[in-house]
Design brief:
By secondary structure, the protein is mainly alpha-helical. It is 77% helix and 6% strand. The longest helix is centred in the middle third of the chain and has 83 residues. The protein is rod-shaped. The relative contact order is 0.14. Bound molecules: zinc ion (ZN). Zinc ion (ZN) binds next to loops.
């Protein structure tokens, strides 16, 4: 076989490997990126819940202060009962005590509800925090694995690139230029084998004359269908 044809076959092999490795490297981080995005959504949810919890706690403090004021007022009113002189004053005081008591029971009810809401939020934030902590550890582990895979494939890629360079340096300038031109136009595939008298690039049946030339391998033969360089698959 003509040495240039042999080199063309090797060059194509390397370019195919380089293409595949680049695809692999590109796809490796895909899953973990999605995972990180999902994690971020949950993290935002947790922050939102914590904010909500702070709001509830603030409400509790405000209502507890108000309750204290109402209690103090009620104590004052009750003391006043002994100082009241007229019926009118008594009615007015009674009414104030009644309003105070209503406010007190409403505040107590509100505070109870807020405590319940706070408990629920506490449970939710706690379980989500635990979940996120666990997930983060898993993501870190996966990330290490991903980095290891990328490194491994990058080593393979660099080796293939170096080998490709060596091969291309042995080639005639015109042959290399032809190869690159076809490869650029034909989806990274410039050199294809012939199997069952068929071009493995475009699957067109080749005439006997071409088959003989390909088998002879004394010069470059191209497919009439897809213009790719052909070689006999022996
Ligand atoms: Zn073809």
């Amino acid at each position: 076989m003509n040495e240039q044809i042999q080199l063309l076959i090797s060059l194509q092999e390397k370019d195919t490997i380089i293409f595949e490795l680049n695809e692999i490297i590109k796809k490796i981080p895909g899953r973990i990126e999605q995972w990180k995005q999902d994690y971020k959504v949950k993290e935002d949810q947790l922050a939102q819940m914590q904010k909500e919890k702070e709001g509830v706690e603030k409400d509790i403090r405000t209502k507890e202060r108000n309750l204290q004021i109402v209690e103090e007022d009620l104590t004052k009113f009750r003391k006043k009962i002994y100082e009241v002189k007229t019926q009118k004053e008594m009615i007015s005081l009674d009414s104030e005590i009644k309003i105070g008591e209503e406010r007190r029971s409403k505040l107590e009810e509100d505070i109870l509800k807020l405590f319940e809401a706070n408990d629920e939020l506490n449970n939710k934030t706690n379980s989500l925090s635990i979940e996120l902590k666990k997930e983060l550890a898993e993501i870190k582990k996966e990330e290490e694995e991903v980095n290891r895979k990328i490194e491994l494939n990058t080593d393979k890629l660099n080796l293939a690139i170096a080998q490709r360079k060596e091969i291309s340096e042995k080639m005639d300038k015109e042959t290399l230029a032809l190869y690159e031109k076809i490869r650029a136009a034909k989806n990274n595939l410039a050199v294809v084998s012939v199997k069952d008298n068929t071009c493995q690039g475009c699957f067109v049946k080749l005439p006997p004359q071409i088959i003989n030339e390909v088998k002879g391998a004394s010069h470059i033969v191209r497919c009439e269908g897809c213009v790719r360089i052909l070689y006999a698959n022996v």
